[in-house]
Design a protein that fits this description.
- The protein is mostly helical.
- The protein has a single domain, classed as Na+/H+ antiporter like fold (Up-down Bundle).
- The chain contains 16 helices and two strands.
- It is globular and about 60 Å long.
Length: 339
């Protein structure tokens, strides 16, 4: 992988934050604007991007199934390693912050930033986006099980649900906040990946759609998938405008979090993959590259949403996410030079 291309694409993603930052600072966006954009990315653009990657992949399923399986297994191992390190390390952090330090260390921004980054770096390799979608299946498996347990301390809480497409609270049935395998199975990324695998196995591709006179479908999907990177980064820019950084340099746990999330844990996963190759386990360069890129992305943007939902110091969590996002422009090239 060309490291200079990685640096350029990370820099481009950061530039894409500016519209959101300026809109919020100039008070030109209405309340709930960011949440609306996030929903557009999560429920429309990102699933379309994933399905399009499967349609655009000319390789047969028999050619890539071993890499797909390897990415899934290693991503499970990676999240297990992140969890095994983060949970004891932040056990003595201040109450409330300890939960989100663990959360932000374990969960990277593998979807909102990782998938656009993979797409940008490997624009001519659609199968790389396929591998990224598989990584995010295990991400969501841990997010909606361990992530919920971390935020709730294992307690069952009830509160009124709010509309996911608007900021205005809509009275609905009371919802229990518990571990949810249903949310894993019906998450947009999981559903899109399932549809994509069906298309790949059955041999449905963009070229066949165009030959059948249905080229309008991949053309429309191509336009929709191009929304993922700019809108994802716009949402992060909106959040960046709300953060006050005064005093964060005095937080020793912040430094420990940055060291683990950006250097120690991605390098540990990379080391395990390199060691596996040395002992004869067949891992392709594609597998190693995708997992390292996604493991080295900053703290998940979902950390802020979980902190707000479960009353876990959302302001501090937002600071973790934003500082981590800024810091990754320095650390990601260093980590990936070793791939």
């Amino acid at each position: 992988m060309d490291v200079s291309a990685l640096i350029i694409n990370v820099a481009i993603l950061f530039i894409m934050m500016l519209p959101g930052y300026l809109l919020k600072k100039c008070k030109m966006c209405p309340e709930g604007f960011g949440k609306g954009l996030a929903n557009l990315v999560l429920y429309i653009a990102q699933p379309v991007l994933i399905v399009y990657a499967y349609l655009d992949c000319e390789a047969e399923f028999s050619q890539i199934w071993s890499d797909v399986l390897a990415v899934f297994v290693i991503s499970l191992i990676a999240h297990a390693i992140f969890s095994a390190v983060a949970i004891p390390v932040f056990r003595k952090a201040p109450e409330g912050r300890d939960r989100m330090l663990k959360f932000a260390t374990i969960f990277s921004n593998a979807a909102f930033m990782g998938i656009p980054l993979i797409q940008a770096i490997f624009a001519d390799r659609p199968e790389m986006a396929i591998y990224a979608s598989v990584y995010n299946i295990s991400f969501n498996l841990f997010l909606w099980t361990l992530g919920v347990l971390l935020c709730t301390g294992g307690e069952v809480r009830e509160e009124k649900r709010t509309s996911e497409c608007a900021e205005v609270a809509i009275p609905m049935l009371r919802e229990k906040h518990t571990v949810s395998l249903k949310k894993v199975l019906f998450h947009p990324v999981t559903l899109a990946s399932a549809v994509g695998i069906i298309l790949l196995v059955t041999g449905v591709k963009n070229s066949l759609l165009r030959e059948a006179g249905l080229g309008i479908i991949p053309d429309a999907m191509d336009m929709l998938r191009s929304l993922v990177a700019p809108l994802s980064m716009t949402v992060i820019g909106l959040r960046l405008s709300d953060i006050k950084f005064h005093g964060f340099l005095n937080d020793a746990y912040m430094y420990l979090f940055l060291l683990l999330r950006h250097l120690a844990l991605p390098l540990a996963v990379l080391g395990i993959m390199k060691l596996s190759i040395l002992v004869g386990i067949p891992l392709s360069n594609d597998t190693v590259t995708v997992i390292t890129v996604l493991a080295a992305t900053p703290a998940a943007s979902s950390a802020t949403m979980f902190a707000e939902k479960y009353d876990c110091d959302a302001l501090y969590t937002s600071r973790l996410v934003i500082v981590s996002t800024i810091f990754c422009i320095l650390t990601m090239p260093l980590v990936l030079m070793l791939v």
